[in-house]
Amino acid sequence: METTTSSGRNQGRLGPDALAAILSSSPMESSLSAAWALGDQGTAIIDPLVEVLQNPDRNVRWSAAIALQRIGASAVDPLTKVLAHGAPESRGPAIWALEKIGDARAVDTLIDVMRSDCDEFCRWMAASALRSIGHPAGIEAVDEALTAASPDEICFI
Fold first, then answer.
1. Fewer CB within 10 Å, N or C, the chain?
2. Is 58 exposed, middle or buried (0-12, 13-18, 19+ CB in 10 A)?
């Protein structure tokens, strides 16, 4: 996303800090509107938005996930990298975005998260995402996990 002055001069691309500032707008409706609009900006904004998933503000992270989900399939590979290297606070929104995008390229990574992530919330979010995506390998992996799960764990799906 590029910004321009009132005279139309290009100010350059927005970086993660500027995007975080936009996404932390109050009230929440403004932040969600900004996320929706950023999602229309296309692939050029994916990397800065992925960086915003590391922001300490939960609302900013989830707003970035909304924008990435709106961008769609082009965001799948960067989002799967977040699952491999990001903190649990950034992995949750990334899993949600991948679920909403629904691209089968995320299935193997989501299976890995479901089976071995250190964060229980992320594991169960990944299971839910796999069910939603509906790929046979994902469904099979979730069914195996459910067979081994306790009744308390099953309620998360």
1. C
2. exposed
Sequence-separated contacts (24+) of 62-65 with Cβ below 8 Å: 62/93, 62/96, 63/23, 63/24, 63/31, 63/32, 63/34, 63/35, 64/19, 64/20, 64/23, 64/35, 64/93, 65/93, 65/94, 65/96, 65/97
Claim to verify: residue 116 and residue 152 sit in the same structural domain: yes
Q: Pick from 55, 71, 87: which residue ends a domain?
A: 71
Query: 25: phi > 0 → left, psi -120 to 50 → alpha, else beta; which?
Result: beta
Residue range 95-137, pLDDT digits in tens: 999 999 999 999 999 999 999 999 989 999 999 999 999 999 9
Token look-up 């799948």 returns 76
| Whole-structure pTM value | 0.82
Residues 58, 117, single domain; the answer is no
